[in-house]
Amino acid sequence: MPAMTTRRTKSSRTQAARKSGTKKTRTAADARGRATKRVYYFGASKTEGRIDQKMLLGGKGANLADMTSIGLPVPPGFTITTETCAEYSRGGNRLPSGLMDEVRRNITLLERELGKKFGDRRNPLLVSVRSGAAVSMPGMMDTVLNLGLTDEVVAGLAATTGNPRFAYDAYRRLINMFGDVVMGVDHHHFEHAFNAIKSRYGVKEDTAVPEDGLKELCIAYQSVYRQHVGEPFPQDPLRQLEQAVQAVFRSWNGERAVAYRRINEIKGLVGTAVNVQAMAYGNMGEDSGTGVAFTRDPSTGENVFYGEFLVNAQGEDVVAGIRTPRPISEMEAWNATVWKQLLAVRKKLERHYRDMQDIEFTVERGRLFMLQTRTGKRNGVASVRTAVEMVRERLIDERTALKRIPAGDLVQLLLPCFSEQDKRGAEVLTRGIAASPGAASGTLAFSASEAVERTNAGESVLLIRRETSPEDVAGMHKAVGILTSTGGKTSHAAVVAVGWGKCCVVGAGDLSIDADAGTVTIHGRTFGRSDTLSIDGSTGEVIVGALPRTVPQSISGDFAQVMKWSQKYATMGVRANADTPADARRAREFGAIGIGLCRTEHMFFEADRIQAVRQMILSERLSDRETALARLLPFQRADFVGIFTAMEGLPVTVRLLDPPLHEFVPHEEAAQQSLADAAGVTLADVQRRVAQLHEANPMLGHRGCRLAVTYPEILVMQVRAIVEAAADCHADGVDARPEIMIPLVGTRRELAILRELTERTVTEVLAQRNLRKLQIPIGTMIEIPRAAVTADEIAEVAEFFSFGTNDLTQMTFGFSRDDIGSFMPAYLEKGIVEKDPFQSIDVHGVGSLVSMACAKGRAKRAKLKLGVCGEHGGDPASIRFFQKCGLDYVSCSPFRVPVARLSAAQAALG
Amino acid sequence: MPAMTTRRTKSSRTQAARKSGTKKTRTAADARGRATKRVYYFGASKTEGRIDQKMLLGGKGANLADMTSIGLPVPPGFTITTETCAEYSRGGNRLPSGLMDEVRRNITLLERELGKKFGDRRNPLLVSVRSGAAVSMPGMMDTVLNLGLTDEVVAGLAATTGNPRFAYDAYRRLINMFGDVVMGVDHHHFEHAFNAIKSRYGVKEDTAVPEDGLKELCIAYQSVYRQHVGEPFPQDPLRQLEQAVQAVFRSWNGERAVAYRRINEIKGLVGTAVNVQAMAYGNMGEDSGTGVAFTRDPSTGENVFYGEFLVNAQGEDVVAGIRTPRPISEMEAWNATVWKQLLAVRKKLERHYRDMQDIEFTVERGRLFMLQTRTGKRNGVASVRTAVEMVRERLIDERTALKRIPAGDLVQLLLPCFSEQDKRGAEVLTRGIAASPGAASGTLAFSASEAVERTNAGESVLLIRRETSPEDVAGMHKAVGILTSTGGKTSHAAVVAVGWGKCCVVGAGDLSIDADAGTVTIHGRTFGRSDTLSIDGSTGEVIVGALPRTVPQSISGDFAQVMKWSQKYATMGVRANADTPADARRAREFGAIGIGLCRTEHMFFEADRIQAVRQMILSERLSDRETALARLLPFQRADFVGIFTAMEGLPVTVRLLDPPLHEFVPHEEAAQQSLADAAGVTLADVQRRVAQLHEANPMLGHRGCRLAVTYPEILVMQVRAIVEAAADCHADGVDARPEIMIPLVGTRRELAILRELTERTVTEVLAQRNLRKLQIPIGTMIEIPRAAVTADEIAEVAEFFSFGTNDLTQMTFGFSRDDIGSFMPAYLEKGIVEKDPFQSIDVHGVGSLVSMACAKGRAKRAKLKLGVCGEHGGDPASIRFFQKCGLDYVSCSPFRVPVARLSAAQAALG
């Protein structure tokens, strides 16, 4: 798939650079062995380079050669090799002797092929000069366009084309670019001169300057050039070219490029190549034009040619949207020959690259030139349809189809969204972090309780909060969408919303919320309870008013086909994280083969339980705690019966209580007073206990299995509820398969002690219910670095591991996910972390702890079941890594299950 | 060192048990190979066991054999082997045939040796029966004393001794113990009978029951026994013995013992041994007695025999303190023969064990019996003196001397303390956590500013706070001691106090502090500003009133000798953590060879700087921050000049700013207002910024090098200050050797970017000062798990690693050191962690990350310098581990430097 090279990520590029280190010697030897060939031509007459010669021709040079060699009408040109650059440096920054002769010979080839002449007045050949190393690299020389224009040539060009505006505009651009990029004249000097002209003609826009002004501008620019360079702008096209080539070579050892290579550890490259390519102009008259097209419809995937073109225009005119382009289908009427050519190109491209292509083309005086082709971006729907249809068309096989669909885009097929069309013209107020995809419009509610009330009264409300906490869960559930001003993708709001498949935008820092007043101010505009806003959970946009939503598809048709293939090729199972029967049913519908994480604490917040939970926490005596727990037991048991029934025949991993107790106590005085009244204690008592529960770093505090160590009675109640629920199910003929998971384990003995208590409780209940045959595996989460490091010991007492990669990432990096907002943007920008490690697993650091734990655990217990239940369980890149670790399953939120299933297949396919 | 076995920690015991698993088979084979010998005698006539036969004879049995075989007059007896216990279990809980014959033969040997007879009325042999496995194990059978008494024997004994009280008291104890321990009669039944007798005689104390009462008690006990056992108390001594032996064997497979072995993973043991030993009584008349003694003075180390004895008394009388014992020197007058014997024993013991011994002895009718000997406990002063003098006496060599001194006890030689004598009679109010040794008495100050003011006014004040924060540092420094009601050994108060060698007690949970009122209430008693309290930083005691303090020694005499030897044998260097010239000088005095951690933030809190720091934090624009930083620069530079000068010629590792910025901003409104006034902003602005800086988990937040990534200007200012200070020093002929340490690094690129900025700044300043030759190594702390895991990459850009084991422990365990108070006690109690991992490194988990990082780092950079600067750098056990990792140095607070130096020597000696 050569075209894929253009879509490479930075990391794969770096890898390529590293690999290529070994090739370098060979290439250099080749070069020295033969008479040194320094220039490689590409064009209709011949194409000397190949796609596999990136080391010698640079990435761009090799690609131009490839496109040309499959017969695309690419503007011809030639590439000066990277070896030549090395020669230049070795020779004390001097062009190797003979190089310019070789360049001249290639210019001649170009002239012949195009029937133009370099420096000619009537029909001049103009070229672009671009740098291009084997690895894309900022800091190298920028492009110079229109090279070959001189005072004489421009006048001729103006006359020949009958378009002096075009000619002088091209010339002034050349002088500016050449001066700036090649000779290092500060750009603002040119700008200054341009401003003088504009004010003289009383215009504001560049485009409004008349022809005469442009001519004057060329003169003014030349004077700027002379003043700063110390010599006149070169009037010899070949001299221009020689200077440009030298500038490219010089830039290779420039400060910025050297620093970039050092920081990014780009080694083994000898230099940059130089690409010299004929210019093609779509703005040379009514027989010229330019356009962009997709070989299929990128929004639906339908197999139709899809695009637009503009007559007598440059590429940038299409993008700028000043003129309205015509649909590509109207091209036949304009120029049937070119149209036929273009259809042939379309076919050829899909046959060659075996994928949908996104192309740019220019027609210069009736002659078609392909400027670029790359794999076409498409949305999730189109991805699925294209892939499935291309299999039917025998263009690709099932494996290729699966590998090609960006797994993450599948959520677009399941959640409501605003279409691009409907969003056009919508007023976007600000953009937060797209935390949970989907789309929602609603009036504004500023507290969870308000959201519950107003929803119950029939309103669609958007819950707006600074941040959310477990106390807000009921209101979050009722709201159509959630919008917060702080937090990131793994903040409370985000995690809960993703689990529900509810639209959520977080960290919208521009929001200034006054919850008491019931207003939110965004960039000076204030919205109240009766105003409607919309949020787009896929883009993070916050929009004024309501927008129509596109209804989601269910899993059928092409989507179902993709899921079927996924099942065929995947070796890892996909479970879901679900806490309620409804979530469990949805997960099952989407193909989950079990629940990998059932969080019992979410059940604690329901109105009918929270009082008992709080009384339990307030109790100072064991017996009082046991009384409160006894009140909770029936609720928990009923919850489990519901989930086990929904997942009949499939495993359900129940995690015992995890969050610190302070998350369950009220922090507002009114709620504290009502708790005090209910518990028969004073407000001061409640406040004292709340203060006592406060922790400096709750993430590293009294939570997880640490609660079970200090309050074993909580564990006993929960285990009893699980086993009794399973027994009730079996009595009703429902095959319940609970697994008990103990969270936050750090040492073997911690788990050993709790496991013993769990086993004792299980045995006791099973004996009471006379149900001895039921096997309930007991395992642990691996989410503390120490647990990963000592996984061999822990495996001695665990039947399964489930990696809690959220917490493991927090502790391995020392990042609190609630607090990274202050530095993560800088970290991403500076490339300190390539991706937010809470979204995609940090393979090198956190990942190495995961793989270490897998290896150590399996060494001790060969049949140890391994899974993951952090946010990463639904992330395609992470799933690829988990496949390598040998995990048995990943577990993610129900709406990510299809994504994970496809990702698992992709991972298995390698 | 056989005696050492009795002092083993649980962990070494467990190890012994594991090792012994391999021996088991061999021993079993031995036993099967020969005619099975089941009983091993120890006594004057012969001693069949050896110290190395723990697997066969159990720990206690082997020790009794050892003491006997060196000629100590141990009450003779015999040991029934652990193999016999295994036979008993295999045979369906039946004693092997022939065993009781062998027992009888050994009883005959005993009778001959002691001239007493088992079951005899006039001169009966009485024995104790004790269990004893190779590993000490709770849950096994308790001791039975006085076995051999019957109705007949007791009457005879009463007559022969002329001491019926003694005889009947012994008998009632036997019936009780035998009933309870051997036959499982609940103890409270006996107690009930005893209470009936006591109330009949109208007495309250057991000892007040008259002779007749004791006789009645024996009858009553026998009736209790008969009632619950179903048969009369056995009147045949051999039957008693047989039943007791069976009970011991039975207890091996009892529920408690089995559970204990399972939980503690004690494997490879076949059973328990039974020790039958003649009783010896010191209360048989005026020719009998008992005493305890040390072979040298344990409080000074002086080579004098030191102890006490009581005539006609049992061991427990000495301990109970009812009668006043006589000094051991008066024994000669009482019984010159026994005195001479005892002196011979003293000499023999020191020759045999080559260490000071703590002995217990009994004289029964003029005959000396040694009941126990063990290594004598001693304080730091005595440790040092004994060790040095024993080398002079050629009892031990230098190596042994060094290995024997508990390194941690050396702090006692440097810090003031309350002597045990002075504390006698003192009123201890409560006990907190002993955080920083020393002793302090003072009136109470409830805020840092109050502590400063009142100290400046000439008072000695104790600072009492719930907890301390960096804002309190000035007051903490002024106070004579610090007392907090929350926090642990690594809380802010503790860490800062240890650094200064200032007395500190933390986590005194009984304190109820009302800072506004200026009172503290402890168990209902309230103390105010004018009251004086004392705290003992070595015990955690909080005491009413002032106590005299013992003045510290300097490093001279024997102490200096120990330090000299340490230097000779240690291979790791010892640096100090010091932030001020005074600390640096003290560290140097104590032998530090550099500063391993100079925390620049401590300098930020000084009154003349904090305003600039706060303005810097408030600034929203870079230029404002730079202005504020420019104001700070001269202060920082001057600080560094002071420290570099104090450490002339030695390396000083300066850590760049580490704590989160919110630690520097005021949290009280008044202070916020004054900051607002100074900065020319509103109170609301300040409060908004303070709120913005708030973090959910500051430990995992925006701190360390993350600050330098987002505010590079802070790094630049600090580096500039360091380099300018070094330049100033060199200009004055002072050889300054700074090293720059970047904290909290998690990824290679993070360090690479900051290193580049650091290097650029260093180069710039050196060029300005024309001082190009100065080499300033740049390194990082390894304190984030990810850094340890990816240490190979990080080593590419670091010249040294310094392990920040405090934070590394926090993140590896997921323990916030501020919050572990709620569960750490339970964790220690349940053995989930053996020691507080913040005090002594968790070798298995955190340690394995440290050793991994060392190996990975050195693999990439062979000359990578490795050190540690967490609290563990001053902990002997941790230092032993660091030696194994191959660290170049440890760094600790100045007062721990001697401890670390000795520990390093011990570690090197293995």
Instruction: Figure out the total of helices of chain A.
Output: 36
- Overall pLDDT metric of chain A: 90
Which assembly state applies to the chains in this document? homodimer
Q: In percent, how much strand structure appears in the residues of chain A?
A: 15-25%
Low-confidence stretches of chain A: 1-33
**How many strands, which pairing sense, and closed or not: the largest β-sheet of chain A?**
8 strands, mixed
Helicity of chain A, in percent? 40-55%
Describe the structure.
Two copies of one chain form a homodimer. The first copy, chain A, contains 36 helices and 31 strands. Chain A is an alpha/beta fold. In chain A, strands 13-23-22-15-16-17-18-14 form an eight-stranded mixed beta sheet. Chain A has an eight-stranded parallel beta barrel with strand order 24-25-26-27-28-29-30-31, surrounded by five helices. Chain A has a five-stranded antiparallel beta sheet with strand order 1-2-7-5-6, sandwiched between helices. In chain A, helix 20 crosses helix 36 and helix 21 packs parallel to helix 24. The two termini of chain A are 15 Å apart. The N terminus of chain A is likely disordered.
Short note summarizing the structure:
The structure is a homodimer of 910-residue chains. Chain A is of the alpha/beta class and 910 residues long.
Question: What attributes does this structure have?
Answer:
homodimer, alpha/beta, 8-stranded parallel β-barrel, 910 residues, 16% strand, 36 helices
